[in-house]
Amino acid sequence: MQKQAEKEIKRQEKEEAQMRKLQKKQQEEALREQKRREKEEAEAKKQQKKQEEEALKEQKRREKEEAEMKKQQKKQQEEAEKEQKRREKEAAQLKKQLAIQKQASMMERFFKSKKDSGKLQKSGDNDSAGPINKKEVPATTSKIDSSLSQQENWVLEDLRRLATFPDLCFFHLHT
What we know:
Elements: H1 2-123, H2 139-150, H3 156-163, H4 170-174
Helix pairs in contact: 1-3
């Protein structure tokens, strides 16, 4: 019986060793499973963080692009406004120049006709023109007419300069 008791004890010890071995194996497997889950969770968190960072970068990039587009549109609008103002200014200057040229041309024709009529009156060929009635012509116009008829060396540039004073110009008053 002692052998049988010893056999029983050895068997129980063997079963206990197997049980401990099995428990140890189960614990190791549970620990591995826990580590695997933790690793997966860490990887998922890392992936989520990476996606959030990429989304934030994309949002910042879009905001930057929008700001750049607004800046570019504003710049284009300002350039268009400057160009419009420049064109308007050029048109105004051209209009002014044309008016001055027209006045100068009219004054030049007037001067030539005065010069021609003065030559005719001096030679006595044309008495029908007669003197100008000073009461009909304003004082300023009379002075300009007098000045133009006395000057024989007027050049086109002088006439143009004179035309820049439209309030004093004879043709301005009669146009």
